[in-house]
Model the fold of this input.
Amino acid sequence: MKKWRCNVCGYIYDPAVGDPANGVPPGTPFEKIPDDWVCPLCGVGKEEFEAAD
Done:
């Protein structure tokens, strides 16, 4: 699965890890994260993320 990078702070969302502290279990693709999820480091929405190489 593809990783995604926050354009504001550089946080990398790794689907293999998820974001369990914020209700996103490991194995969750970025596209399946709820729309109201925000970056755990800086608080911006999913629209500020882009696919990481």
Q: What stands out?
A: Residues 11 and 40 are 8 Å apart (CA to CA).
